[in-house]
Write a structure and sequence with these properties.
heterodimer, B: mainly alpha, about 0% strand
Chain lengths: ~325, ~325
C-alpha cells in the first residue's frame, strides 16, 4: 500500500507538470496577438511595447513558464488580460455552479446506471436488459447539446414543465430555486457517462453472481433474487464503480462547458469559454490547470480508495 | 547475406525439434551454431506476414456477422449518399439561395427538406455538411490512430525510459478534458476544417496509445518476434514490420467507436462556433445556425440532429458488433 502510494505520487506530480507545460506552451505558442486584443482601439506601438514589457511577453517561453509555475504553486494564476480580475478569484467565484452540475450529473449517472444494472441482473427478464442497452446506445450516440436543445424545447418552451435556462444563485434566490435550475442540466450531463457505469457495474455483478463462493453460500441460506443482489453482491461490486466514476470526471467537465453555454449557467466552463474566445491566456491556462489537477487527483484518489477498500487488492499489495 | 547466430530460440518449434533430433546422437555439449541463409530470414519474415494476413482476413470475415454487416451497410449508404447524393440528385449549391425563399417548410417544390433562414436548400446543406462531419471524424481518428499506435508500440517494445516518458504524456493528455483542449487549439489556430481535425486527433492519441502498448506487451514475446530479434533485425524495424501489423485488429473496434466520438466532438465545437465556420456547412453548425429559429421552424434543428444521431448510432453499433465478434472468435 505504502509502496504503491510512494510510486504513484511522484508519477502524479510529473503528469501534472506535463499538463501545465502543455497548457502553457499551447496557449502561449499558438498564434493570436494578445496585445492587439487587449489594446483594441487604443493600439499604438508605444503602448504595445509598454504592455509587452509589463506582461513579460518579451521573455522566452521557458522563463515565462517558470515564473508562472512559481506563482501557480502559490495559487496565484495571474490576472485576466481582459478584465484585470485575479484568475484565482474568478475561478473560485464561478466554481459553485460547475461543482453542483458535475456532482449532480454523477449522482444521476450512478443512480440510473446501477438501477438498470441491478434490474437487468435480478429480473433475468431480457427486455429490461435490452432496454438498458438500448438506452445506453442512444445516450452514447446523442451529443448532450442536442439532447439539451430538444429537452428545453419540448419540456421548457412548449410544456412549461421546467425552467428553460438560467441559474439561480443560492444567496439571492434560495437553495430551492438553485436546485430547480440545476437539476435538468445535471441529468442531461449525467446521461453522457451513464452507459459506461451501467456496462461495468452489470458485468461486475454478473461475474460475482456466477463465480463467487459467498453467493453460493447465501443461496444455500435461502437468500435469492433482489435481496441477494442488493445485500451482498451490489456492495461487493460497488468498488469497481469508484474507478469508473473518477474516470468519468474528465468527460463530465467537457460536457459542462457546452451545457453551461446552452443553459446560460455562469460556471467555470463559461469562464473558460469566454477566456478562450478573448485569447485571455491567464484565464485559459488557469482553468485548464485546475481541471487537469482535479482529474489527475481524483484518478489517483480512486485507485488508492479502491486498493484500500477492497481487501483482495489490499492484501495483494501488502504481500 | 548469411548470418550466424547462437541458437537460444528458434524460429519455430518444428525447426527446434529438427535440430534437437540432429544433435541428439552427436550429444555435443557445446552451444549449437547454425547459419541462417537468406531464405531462412525470408521465412521468418513471411511467417509473421502470414499471421498478419490471416488476422486481416479474419477481420474481414466478421462482415458475415449480421451484427457487423447491417450497420456497415447503413453506414456505407450514408457515406455514399453524402458524397454522391448532391451530384446524383442535382441539388442546388448549399450556399446559394434567396432571402425571399427563407424558412420554407418540408416538401416545398424544389426543396424537399425546405430551406434555412437565408433560403439555402436544407437537403443540400445537410449532405455537404455530412461530407465535412464524416471526413473530420475519419481523418481525425486516423491521425490519432497512427500517432497513438506508433507511440504505444514503441513504448511496449522498448520499455524503460521510453515507456515511462510516453506513458506519462498519455496520462497528461488523458487528464485534459477532451473538448477543452480541442476548444483551445481550435480557437488559437482559428476555425478551419484542418485545425478541427488536429484538435480532435490530439486527444484520441492517448486512448489508442494505451491500448497499443497493452497489446504490444502481449505480442512482444511471441515466437516470431523473438526469432526476428535473434536474426539481428533492428528494434525499430521490428516495431514497424512485426508488431504494428499484429496489434491492428484489436485497435480497429476502438477506432470505429472513435470516429463516432470525433463526429460528436466536431459537432460540439462547431456548435460553439469554434469548429467549422459558416458558410461551410457541418452538422454541428447547421444546428447552431438554426437555434434562433427554434420556435418558428424546429425541423431546422431536428433534421441535422437526427442525421448526426443516426450516423453516430450506426457507428456505435458497428464497433459493438466488431467487439462482440472478436470476443467470439477468440
Amino acid at each position: 500500500m505504502l509502496r504503491m502510494t510512494a510510486i504513484r505520487i511522484p508519477q502524479m506530480i510529473v503528469v501534472i507538470l506535463i499538463v501545465t507545460i502543455i497548457a502553457f506552451v499551447m496557449v502561449n505558442l499558438l498564434p493570436g496577438d494578445v496585445i492587439s486584443v487587449i489594446l483594441g482601439d487604443q493600439y499604438t506601438p508605444e503602448a504595445a511595447a509598454e504592455l509587452t514589457k509589463e506582461l513579460a511577453l518579451d521573455q522566452p517561453i521557458p522563463v515565462r513558464y517558470v515564473i508562472w509555475l512559481w506563482h501557480a504553486i502559490h495559487l496565484d494564476f495571474g490576472r485576466s488580460l481582459a478584465t484585470h480580475v485575479s484568475v484565482m478569484e474568478s475561478m473560485l467565484q464561478d466554481a459553485l455552479p460547475t461543482v453542483e452540475l458535475v456532482i449532480g450529473a454523477m449522482f444521476a449517472a450512478v443512480i440510473l446506471g446501477s438501477a438498470l444494472a441491478i434490474g437487468a441482473v435480478v429480473s433475468r427478464n431480457p427486455w429490461i436488459d435490452r432496454a438498458g442497452t438500448a438506452l445506453a446506445l442512444v445516450c452514447t450516440s446523442l451529443p448532450n447539446f442536442i439532447l439539451a436543445l430538444i429537452v428545453t424545447t419540448i419540456f421548457g418552451v412548449q410544456l412549461h414543465l421546467i425552467p428553460t435556462i438560467g441559474w439561480a444563485d443560492p444567496g439571492d434566490a434560495g437553495w430551492g430555486a438553485n436546485i430547480r435550475a440545476i437539476i435538468v442540466p445535471s441529468i442531461i450531463l449525467g446521461l453522457t457517462i451513464f452507459p459506461s457505469i451501467m456496462r461495468i457495474f452489470r458485468a461486475e455483478l454478473q461475474e460475482q453472481l456466477e463465480s463467487e463462493e459467498y453467493v453460493t453460500l447465501a443461496r444455500m441460506k435461502g437468500v435469492t433474487g433482489f435481496g441477494l443482489v442488493w445485500r451482498h453482491v451490489a456492495r461487493n461490486s460497488a468498488f469497481g464503480l469508484i474507478t469508473v466514476v473518477a474516470a468519468g470526471l474528465g468527460p463530465l467537465v467537457s460536457g459542462a462547458v457546452i451545457l453551461e453555454n446552452i443553459f446560460a449557467i455562469p460556471g467555470l466552463g463559461t469562464l473558460l469559454f469566454q477566456g478562450i474566445q478573448l485569447h485571455d491566456s491567464p484565464v485559459v491556462v488557469g482553468c485548464v490547470t485546475i481541471v487537469g489537477v482535479i482529474v489527475v487527483l481524483s484518478n489517483l484518489g480512486a485507485d488508492l480508495a479502491y486498493a484500500m477498500l477492497d481487501p483482495r487488492v489490499r492484501d495483494a499489495l501488502n504481500r | 547475406m548469411p548470418c550466424s547466430i547462437r541458437v537460444f530460440v528458434m524460429p519455430s518449434t518444428a525447426d527446434l525439434s529438427a535440430i534437437k533430433a540432429k544433435q541428439a546422437p552427436a550429444a555435443k555439449p557445446a552451444p549449437a551454431r547454425v547459419t541462417l541463409s537468406e531464405a531462412d530470414l525470408e521465412w521468418v519474415a513471411t511467417g509473421a506476414r502470414v499471421i498478419w494476413r490471416k488476422k486481416l482476413l479474419r477481420t474481414l470475415r466478421t462482415l458475415r456477422d449480421p451484427g457487423v454487416a447491417m450497420p456497415a451497410a447503413i453506414l456505407l449508404f450514408i457515406i455514399l449518399g453524402c458524397f454522391f447524393g448532391p451530384i446524383v440528385l442535382g441539388l442546388p449549391d448549399p450556399n446559394i439561395g434567396s432571402l425571399r425563399q427563407g424558412l420554407l417548410p418540408i416538401g416545398s417544390p424544389g426543396h424537399p427538406l425546405g430551406t434555412n433562414n437565408l433560403g439555402n436548400d436544407l437537403l443540400s446543406r445537410l449532405l455537404y455538411g455530412g461530407q465535412v462531419s464524416i471526413l473530420v471524424g475519419i481523418v481525425a481518428t486516423g491521425m490519432g490512430f497512427l500517432v497513438g499506435m506508433t507511440l504505444g508500440a514503441i513504448a511496449g517494445v522498448f520499455g524503460g525510459v521510453f515507456e515511462a516518458a510516453i506513458m506519462r504524456i498519455f496520462d497528461a493528455l488523458y487528464a485534459f478534458p477532451s473538448l477543452i483542449i480541442a476548444l483551445a487549439i481550435a480557437s488559437y489556430l482559428g476555425p478551419s476544417v484542418f485545425h478541427t481535425m488536429i484538435a480532435i486527433a490530439l486527444f484520441t492519441v492517448s486512448g489508442f496509445g494505451r491500448l497499443a502498448r497493452g497489446q504490444t506487451i502481449r505480442v512482444r514475446n511471441f515466437d516470431y518476434i523473438v526469432a526476428a530479434r535473434s536474426c539481428g533485425m533492428s528494434e525499430v524495424k521490428i516495431v514497424f514490420v512485426h508488431v504494428i501489423p499484429n496489434i491492428i485488429p484489436p485497435l480497429i473496434s476502438l477506432a470505429v467507436f472513435n470516429i463516432g466520438n470525433a463526429m460528436v466532438v466536431e459537432a460540439g465545437l462547431s456548435y460553439l462556433g469554434l469548429g467549422i465556420r459558416i458558410p461551410d456547412p457541418s452538422w454541428g453548425n447547421l444546428i447552431a445556425d438554426a437555434q434562433p429559429y427554434l420556435s418558428r421552424d424546429p425541423m431546422l434543428i431536428y433534421i441535422p440532429a437526427a442525421a448526426l444521431f443516426i450516423t453516430v448510432f450506426t457507428i456505435t453499433l458497428l464497433s459493438d458488433g466488431f467487439r462482440r465478434r472478436m470476443a467470439l472468435d477468440r
